[in-house]
Design brief:
The complex is a heterotrimer. Chain A is an alpha+beta fold. Chain A has helices at about 1-20, 45-50, 70-75, 100-105, 140-145, and strands at about 25-30, 35-40, 50-55, 65-70, 85-90, 95-100, 110, 115, 115-120, 130, 150-160. Chain B has helices at about 15-25, 35-45, 65-70, 95-100, 110-125, and strands at about 5-10, 30-35, 50-55, 55-60, 60, 80-85, 100-105. The chains are: A alpha+beta, B alpha/beta, C alpha+beta.
């Protein structure tokens, strides 16, 4: 019983911990809602994509920080679709929409690393969408701030 | 006295006429010319008068030139006496200035002229010409 | 007159400009302040909302965490523990935002918030580190998590107070906005007031300046009126005749006493029209400087006066009119005539030799004729011939008399009377006077008179003859001291072209120098040697010709000088007699 419990725990750890903190669910759906494609990416899969880096200060952190990860553009086109928007959901079920123009015109990073280290949930990890705030002043405005979702859980791309 | 001849030259016709008449009545042979060229022509034509009495200004012609012309005539044609009679005021000028024997200023008494001429002719011993 | 110093003028110009600039600046500042305040209000509103949001999020995670804890206490399964783990992580991630993020800025004002919250962060970190080591489905685990519920209890209270503070800020903000809405902002109001005051200042200053200008204009007007009065007084007092003529219809609008004496006190008197016409004509035709004129005028009492004067534009009684100033120079002219006389006497002296020659000729004839008559008498000659001699004497006496007449005519002092006379006759008389001189000088005088004897001109005949004599004598003298290769010639021509008679005296002596031409008619300008000419001849000739309303000019022709006299031809009946 105790062994079984331990095994269960280990299994749970092995399965849930990465899933809990280290995966992101990607889904592409048409406008009418029917699913076109789905992917779940763990940290290794995200690391396998071309990496991008943003060095900036943020309204939520102190000092200059280095955000690293694949670009939102690469994620959006991962399955060959060209989505128009993405609904970003956070662990606390906060949801925000980002229009395609944002990632097409700017290098928006789907950060998996903060200052080179993977991000814990308590540090707003594991995934944090970051805009190059210091490069474009307007990104400090409130409407953009709401798009820089942290503790990202899933990305729902809408293809038109 | 008489037998002398005189060539009178004056463009004042009246004066010349009266002078001629005066000398004629005095027994002179008188030739009157009212222009200088006529007078010159008479002289060159062998007139050879005893006296030449000329005005100083005869129209545009200078009486002094007539006198000079007379002096250049051959000796046998030259008048013995040359005289000028002028209406000009010649206060400081004398007969010698013109190279003549007498210089009269109008109006002159013709008897004075006649006396002067005949006196000088007698002094020089000129005999009145005949004819 | 009011006079301003330049500095004061500059200040007066700068002051309104400065006021206007100030007003504009104040308006701009007011507008900017308003915009800035609105923005500030928006930012503040956003900040307050952000603070509330952050506090609310933390509070929410706290409540969710407590629920997961209680669930884990009840059934500490692996899933429950994982769920708790995530909840605690999320709660932990919210805490720094309370004092660190921009959204929570307002909460910084809460004393000791940061250190308090950081204590809870350490506590949560401990729990998060401990949680994975807890075995699921164990009573111990359940009990331990049960103690955590109490441990996190103060955090709940803190978060509650933070949330309440944010809500209180919100409430305060709304209250302040209400206040702001109720009461206009004092600073913009003050700025508006200052702007308004500046505007009023500009207007007041402008009004003051306008008053000053008005005063200056009034003073200038008064000065102008005074000046006009002065001018009128001066015009009244001047002994010269001054007349203001209205150019619109050439009527007289003002007469000074001297003018009234000369013509008539009434501007409606017909003589005024006559005078004005003559004056305008004289100014137009005159060869003097613009606006000057010389003219004669027959006064009502029959006196003829010689006038010189000017015409000029004046502003009189508020509009442009013509001022005619005339001086009676009759007396001056009398002096001219004296000079003419002196010149003539000089000429007479100069001509005495010629005169003697002229007289000696008939005398010589007479003497000869008398001598011949005497001889006729002595010879008891023909009575008819003697009578002929006496006739000749008589005619020569006539000849001498006519010569003396000419000299007398020339020598007498001219009167100032105007007569009509035959131009041709006058010219012939003048020629007769110089004919002998020309003969004596060997100058060929060609006379061509294409005018009938009846052609009359008005003037004084003796003076006019003297003009012609002067011109002919001048022409003769022009040949002196000149070596010529031709017979010196002078042409005297006269012709008429309707209203005018033209007399020309031309020589071929080489002409007059350019410099001399310019001042030929000025008194005492002469080319002759001092003893020969007084230099008055041509200036007097001009006076005489002008007196006859004519003109005399000089110029160089092909071979010499040519003097031209143009005279108005008199109508059959003289105008004076007609008037």
């Amino acid at each position: 019983m105790r062994q079984k419990a331990l095994l269960t725990l280990l299994l749970a750890l092995a399965w849930t911990m990465p899933a809990l903190a280290q995966t992101v669910a990607l889904r592409w759906s048409a406008k009418d809602g029917h699913s076109l494609a789905e992917r779940t990416l763990d940290l290794a899969a995200l690391d396998a994509l071309p990496q991008m880096e943003i060095v900036t200060s943020t309204p939520w952190t102190e000092g200059i920080k280095r955000f690293t990860g694949p670009t939102l553009l690469d994620l959006a086109r991962l399955t060959g679709f060209d989505p128009a928007t993405v609904r970003v959901a956070a662990l606390n079920d906060f949801v925000s929409s980002i229009p395609a123009t944002d990632w097409k015109e700017n290098s928006i990073v789907f950060s998996t690393r903060l200052d080179g280290k993977s991000i814990r949930v308590r540090e707003n990890g594991p995934f944090w969408i970051m805009y190059p705030i210091n490069k474009r002043g307007e990104f400090a405005q409130l409407n953009y701030r709401s798009r820089m979702v942290w503790q990202v859980k899933s990305l729902d791309f809408v293809v038109e | 006295m008489g037998g002398f001849s005189i060539l009178i030259c004056d463009d004042e016709t009246d004066l010349a006429g009266e002078l001629g008449e005066f000398f004629t009545t005095s027994g002179w042979s008188t030739i009157v010319r009212t222009t200088a060229p006529d007078a010159l022509e008479a002289l060159h034509g062998g007139l050879a008068p005893t006296c030449l009495l000329t005005d100083l200004r005869i129209g545009e012609f200078d009486g002094a030139e007539l006198v000079t012309a007379a002096r250049r005539l051959p000796p046998h044609l030259q008048p013995s006496i040359l005289a000028i009679m002028t209406g000009h005021v010649v206060d400081s000028t004398g007969a010698g200035d013109f190279g003549v024997d007498f210089l009269y200023v109008k109006p002159i008494d013709p008897d004075v002229v006649l006396n002067d001429l005949e006196l000088l002719l007698s002094v020089r011993g000129d005999a009145p010409q005949e004819g | 007159m009011i006079s301003w110093s330049n500095k004061a003028r500059v200040k007066l110009r700068i002051l309104p400009l400065a006021l206007i600039v100030t007003t504009v600046c104040l308006f701009a500042a007011t507008t900017l302040l308003y915009i800035w305040q609105n923005q500030q209000r928006a930012v503040m509103s956003a900040t307050v909302q952000g603070s509330g949001w952050v506090a609310y999020q933390a509070q929410l995670e706290y409540v969710k965490s407590r629920v997961e804890m209680e669930r884990a206490v009840a059934r500490p399964t692996g899933t429950a523990l994982e769920a708790l783990q995530l909840r605690l992580e999320l709660l932990r991630s919210r805490l720094p935002l309370l004092y660190q993020a921009e959204e929570g800025k307002l909460l910084n004002e809460i004393a000791s918030l940061k250190s308090g919250v950081q204590e809870f962060e350490v506590m949560l970190d401990t729990m998060l580190d401990r949680l994975p080591t807890l075995a699921p489905s164990e009573i111990a685990t359940s009990e331990e998590i049960g103690t955590w519920l109490d441990t996190v209890e103060p955090l709940g209270r803190t978060l509650q107070s933070v949330l309440m503070a944010a809500v209180a800020y919100n409430g305060d903000l709304y209250r302040r906005e209400r206040e702001l809405a109720a009461m206009p902002a004092i600073v913009p109001l003050a700025l508006l007031f200052i702007s308004g005051a500046s505007l009023a200042g500009v207007l007041l200053l402008q009004a003051w300046r306008d008053r000053q200008r008005l005063a200056a204009v009034e003073a200038a007007t008064a000065a102008l009126t005074a000046m006009e009065e002065n001018l009128r007084a001066v015009i009244e007092a001047v002994p010269a005749s001054m007349t203001v003529i209205d150019p619109r219809n050439d009527t007289v609008s003002f007469i000074n006493p001297a003018a009234a004496t000369m013509v008539d006190a009434s501007p409606d008197h017909p003589d005024w029209q006559r005078l004005i016409r003559a004056a305008l004509e004289a100014a137009r035709l005159g060869d003097g400087p613009r606006g000057t004129l010389k003219m004669t005028f027959a006064k009502a009492n029959g006196d003829v006066v010689s006038l010189c004067g000017t015409l000029c534009s004046v502003i009189f009684e508020g509009r442009a009119q013509t001022l005619l100033v005339l001086m009676d120079e009759t007396r001056v002219r009398d002096a001219d005539l004296q000079l003419l006389q002196a010149a003539k006497l000089a000429t007479l002296g100069e001509l005495s030799t010629a005169i003697a020659h002229e007289l000696n000729q008939p005398l010589a004839v007479i003497r000869m004729a008398v001598a011949n008559a005497h001889r006729m008498l002595a010879a008891d000659g023909d009575r008819t011939a003697i009578a002929g001699k006496l006739d000749r004497v008589s005619s020569q006496v006539e000849r001498a008399k006519s010569i003396i007449d000419q000299i007398r005519r020339y020598g007498r002092i001219p009167s100032d009377s105007l007569d009509r006379f035959s131009l041709r006759h006058a010219i012939e008389l003048a020629v007769g006077f110089v004919a002998q001189q020309y003969r004596a000088s060997g100058i060929r005088l060609t006379i061509q008179l294409d005018i009938p004897p009846e052609l009359m001109v008005v003037g004084e005949q003796a003076l006019f003859e003297q003009v012609i004599v002067n011109l002919l004598v001048n022409a003769r003298d022009a040949f002196q001291e000149k070596a010529l290769d031709h017979v010196p010639s002078v042409w005297l021509r006269a012709r008429s072209n309707g209203a005018e008679a033209v007399i020309e005296v031309e020589d071929d002596a080489g002409g007059i120098g350019e410099e001399m031409l310019l001042k030929l008619f000025e008194p005492f300008s002469t080319t002759k040697s001092v003893e020969k000419g007084t230099g008055l001849g041509l200036s007097l000739a001009r006076s005489v010709v002008r007196q006859m309303n004519g003109q005399i000019t000089a110029g160089n022709m092909w071979a010499g000088a040519c003097f031209t006299v143009v005279l108005p031809v008199s109508a059959a009946v003289p105008a004076r007699e007609a008037a």
